[in-house]
Every structure is written in structure tokens, then in C-alpha cells.
Amino acid sequence: MAMAWGQGELFAEASKEEIKQTEFYLSKYKLMTLFMSDYENYQREMAQVAIDGEAARRIDQTDLHADKTANATILDEKQKWVYNQYRKFTSMISRAHWLIIDSEVKEAIDIRFIQGYSRKETILFMRRGVAHSTVDRRIDDGIESIANTLKVMGFFEEIRREF
Question: What percent of the chain has pLDDT over 90?
């Protein structure tokens, strides 16, 4: 039984749905960091391509007439919004990963999700006589640990509020 203070739990446990959401966001972690890096390095170029290219011609396929300048501005704002969401999510995930106590679990999560390797590659990197079922268990334990930490941080409430 978790100790409670007011409406919150001192040692919160993520629900099965929250654990599934955590695994989803972990699987997107590498993609989010790549997008953020690209956005930071090429923001001006991305904005120019939106103006010059076909991306801004029609945002919505039902548009009969497209205002490229306005649509380019909308695309630029959308990219900024996505960038800010990714920054918030990856920051919280990184902090939750850092807080994993078991070093072997932390390593499995790092290889699998933070570095973005496949399950098979993660097993090969962690081989050292470790069975694949052990690596799978470490990954599952890491996902659950991160989910529990994210719950305390308010990650899932933030997702519900944003979407």
C-alpha cells in the first residue's frame, strides 16, 4: 500500500496504460532527439524551404486556394510547437532514465531506447553471457521504473493536457 499525502501518492505506481504510453514515448525518443537537433541546426533553412517549396502550397487538401506565405507561417509555428513538446518530453524521460537505480537495467534502457538500437542489437551489446530473457526483463523493469517516475513528475497529466 502506497503512502498518501493529500490527493497524491508518495510512491506512485504507473497503471498498465501509463506503462504502455511510456514504452511508446521511449520508442520515439531517438526520433525526437534527432528532430530537435535538426531543428536547432537548420531552423532557418526549414522555414525557407516551407516558403519556397511545395510543403506550404496546401496544408489542407480541401483548400481551393492556398496562401503560401500564411501556410509557411503555420508550418513554422507547428514545427516550433513540436520542437517544444519534444524538448519537454525528452527532458522528463532523460531525468527518469537517470533515476533508475539498477545499473544493468539503466544500461539496457540506454542501449535500447536512448541510443535507439533494436531489441536484437541490445541483446548482442549486453551479451556477456546474459540470456535474452534477462535482457527483456531488464528492459521491462526499466520501462516500469521510468513510467513510475514519469507519473510522479506529472508527465501523463501533461500529455492529457496537451492532446
Answer: 60
Rounded Cα gap, residues 21 and 18, in angstroms: 5
Q: What is the DSSP string of 75-137?
A: HHHHHHHHHHHHHHHHHHHHHHHHT---HHHHHHHIIIIIS---HHHHHHHT-TT--HHHHHH
The H or E element that residue 9 is part of is strand 8-9
- What is the C-alpha separation between 123 and 8, in angstroms, rounded? 37
- Residues 119 and 113: their CA atoms lie apart, in Å, by 9
What are the pLDDT digits (tens) for 14-66?
A: 999 999 999 999 999 999 999 999 999 987 776 666 555 554 455 555 554 55
Answering whether pTM is above 0.90, one says no
Per-residue DSSP letters for 29-86? HHHHHHHHHHHHHHHHHHHHHHHHSSTTT-SSTT-SS--HHHHHHHHHHHHHHHHHHH
